[in-house]
Amino acid sequence: MTNSIHHYDVAIIGGGPAGQAAALVLDQNGARIAVIDEQQRPGGQILRQPPQEFAMAQSMKGKSYTSLKSQLRAFEALNRCDWIGGKSVIGIDRSGGTVDLTLASGDGITQVSANRLLIASGCYDLPIPIPGWTLPGAMGAGGLQALVKAQAVVPDGRVLLAGTHPLMLIVATQVIAAGGTVAEVAFDQRQSFLARLLIKGAGTALRNFGLMLDAASAWATLRRAGVPVTFGQRLSVIEGLNRVSSARIGKRTVHCDAVGLCYGFLPQSDLPRLAGLSVRWAQPTGGWAAEHDGWMRSSVSQIFVAGETSGVAGAPAALLEGQIAGAGIALDLGLIPMDEAEAIRRDAARKQIRVSRFAALLDRIADPTSALTALRDANTILCRCEDVTIGAVETALIQDSDPNSVKLVTRCGMGTCQGRGCEHMLLRLAAHKRGVGPNELRGFTSRFPVRPTRIGDLIG
Amino acid sequence: MRSQADITRGMPVTIEVDGQMIDSFSGETLLAALVAAGHMRLRNDQEGQPRGFWCNMGTCSECFVSRLDVTPVRRIRACLITVEDGMRIATRSISYD
Ligand SMILES: Cc1cc2nc3c(=O)[nH]c(=O)nc-3n(C[C@H](O)[C@H](O)[C@H](O)COP(=O)(O)OP(=O)(O)OC[C@H]3O[C@@H](n4cnc5c(N)ncnc54)[C@H](O)[C@@H]3O)c2cc1C
Ligand code: FES
User: Fold this and answer.
1) Distance between CA atoms of A399 and A102, rounded to whole angstroms?
2) A124, B57: Cβ pair inside 8 Å?
3) Closest Cβ opposite residue A416 in set B36, B51, B61
4) Sign of the CA dihedral A265, A318, A203, A293?
5) Domain A6-124+266-362 class in CATH
6) Architecture field, domain A375-440
7) What predicted TM-score, i.e. pTM, was given to this entire model?
8) Ligand 2 within 6 A of B75 CB?
9) Each residue of A183-212: pLDDT tens digit?
10) CATH 3.10.20.440 fits B12-90, yes or no
11) Is the dihedral of CA A124, B61, A87, A280 positive or negative?
12) Which CATH fold topology does A129-262 show?
């Protein structure tokens, strides 16, 4: 461990839209800040940037990205704010009066301490245990997209996108723009279901015109490229020997070499739960969202949350939460008068009304519940780290329906990913068994280090 | 496959993966270099079944590989690590024990 611990007014975990927005407000009010991110460069998931060494035409061309991109430029121009890229936060400790963070990277362990902490760690692709999802070539659609937009690499062969979330239309166009081949974009839902929701929510959809336009233009691009966009036929099995070679969509077999699974996103909840923040079960995707008050204060003093850690509602919502958190922290530290903080909060809260209606519409459209229920196959691996099948979990649930007991008995959730992949499904199965909602169950305990770390680094 | 659309990459670098030389570019993540080389199988599970990466953002641990050119050997998540010229990598799809 290093002895020199850098101290800041505020440490921000996550350089996405939420973390950047908070940093901009805080910097303007004179705070000394560090922003820490596992990625090398700022941007977060939505604007994951190519490496500094690359010169690449901006891959995020859609209308809805304009304000996010200008915020990112403003953030990168801050000169007092310390950017700590390429390091994972693995621990949070408040016992010394300050908030002390442990950071890990390929080079070992470092520490950062601050008076206030903002957790803006975002979300991750919903891991969906479909038969064959462990085959090489099957991946989260967000992960696929990040490969294309930040690395300009596309899996060889034909790429299938399947799921419930409309983001896959955009991912498909990005694969094509990068020279890849899209086999099909397959929505679980029937077209009539989508149309009904869109008509009911037409006002909301129109007020979020930029995003709707991006989806519509993506669809038109796919049509022109001759890519089938299908509805109402569910992906049920991914097949292959050494890697993906086909998939079953409804009654059809689609030949493909890679599959991007797009069923929505779960809030990152490892750091919030490690620090003891109170969380709620996130609907409809599952996972745990950090709770907060009107200033984005968490249930634990000194710690604030913003962005998709506190519920997945899209990048514009994450940005607004970041602004409010920035104002809230500045207020807490006595850096800003109440009326100024309140003005920032009121302005952001007004804009939140619009984006949250759109997020609610998207939640209803992309709801993965029926896919998660229909695809329950006993032989499919649920816990990828420990090779535990859905069947093994269901058998253990017959003896004891407490998720943490099942974890101990089966090892489901005991591996290096700490249950990020399987906890949501184990809780759903346990809740089903007990006839309660998953929100009524106790989730896994988050443990230090929240990212796999060499023991030698921790004691060295 | 590496996209050629409107892009200039970093300096060429060469890395060794399971004894084979693979071309890469400065700034690329190790995972991107592996995917571009068609190296999708990164490990075998307890039943010997093939596994590949899932999240490409550091959360799932499926992309763990060993870096052999440092002492002690480090296990790293390929999706978070940038390639370096002369890097030697062992995936867990073959046994090195
Ligand atoms: C892979 C992926 C791709 C996506 N692509 C799109 C898209 O194209 N369009 C769209 O509308 N939405 C997309 N989303 C949804 C998108 O994440 C959000 O709408 C938006 O980026 C949320 O902003 P945020 O600031 O809350 O979090 P993020 O942008 O996710 O930023 C959080 C940051 O925190 C970092 N982080 C997390 N945990 C740690 C830790 N322990 N230590 C250090 N750093 C940490 C992450 O590396 C990340 O950069 C994507 C999501 C994912 C997971
Ligand atoms: S692919 Fe999930 S941790 Fe790297």
Assistant:
1) 39
2) yes
3) B61
4) positive
5) alpha beta
6) Orthogonal Bundle (1.10)
7) 0.96
8) no
9) 999 999 998 888 788 777 777 766 666 667
10) yes
11) positive
12) FAD/NAD(P)-binding domain (3.50.50)
